[in-house]
Amino acid sequence: MVASDQTVGNGRSPLQEAERQFQRLGDQLRVVMDGCDCAGEVSLVQARSCLLGSSRGARQRDVVWCEVIRRARMHEEWMVGAIGLAMPGLRMSARRVCRGLAPAAVDDVESAILAGFVTAMRQINPEWTRLAWRLRSRAQRAGFQERRRETRQPTVNDQVSESAAPPIPWGHPDLLLAEAVRAGVLHRGDAQLIAESRLEKATLVAIAADLDVSYKTLHKRRERAEARLVAAIADGSISARSSTAATIADAAGYRTG
Fold first, then answer.
1. Is the pLDDT at 171 greater than 70, yes or no?
2. Which domain of life, per UniProt (predicted)?
3. Residue 33, class by beta-carbon neighbours within 10 Å (0-12 exposed, 13-18 middle, 19+ buried)?
């Protein structure tokens, strides 16, 4: 049983419980890797370490993930293994999505992230490229959907005073990017590029290598996307608190006024 399907009542968060299950099974689940320092048959625990440090980029990761997806659709223990293999990315997503939430809400959001990942594993086309990124993105979107539900739930203060502003995290940069995608200001890939390079502090050099494009091409793509985003904020096409706009605009070298 994967962690998202059970209640964690032992003090561990859903992601911590998923990692515990992975450590229990990961050495028994083995994949064949080629063209890197870990060439040959290795455990999923070893594969995770190898892929994190691999200079082979997306191609090597896609080969491994294609096989893991195929097996996870047939065997539950491999779904546990897939969650563990993706854990570094899922943790990063959880930190972003859960920022500012109460502990109980964090558990709900982590569970949603895991459930979203499992759903993505069952639905994604394994022939696509950048599988790890696509899986993580879908899991993260599921987490944000749960976050919005959590922050829209009525509180005691809401019941006492109807004029009180609802606790919706308008100032969250990720929600600003999501709004920009919905409004057609940004393509989804451009929003992800801004999030990874500006909010997660991933370097453009690393992202360009992962995408198999030149640094110059990616830099121009981000520059154009950020210009559209800042213009949309300035003319009111999308809403954002000034602090949120500044988070991205300052990083991009723009001023919002």
1. no
2. Bacteria
3. buried
Q: How far, in Å, CA of 113 to CA of 118, rounded? A: 9
Bridge partners of residue 41, in order along the sequence:
32
Residues 48 and 90 in one domain: yes
Q: What range does the domain containing 94 cover?
A: 14-150
Query: With left for phi above 0 and alpha for psi between -120 and 50, is residue 186 left, alpha or beta?
Result: beta
Of 76-85, 141-150, 226-235, 245-254, minimum mean pLDDT range: 245-254
Rank 47-61, 124-138, 235-249 by mean pLDDT and report only the highest.
124-138
Find, among 45, 90, 88, 92, the residue nearest to 64 by Cα.
45
Contact 194, 248 (CB under 8 A): yes
Q: Please write the tens of the pLDDT for every residue from 95-116.
A: 989 988 998 899 999 999 999 9
Assigned domain for 162 exists? no
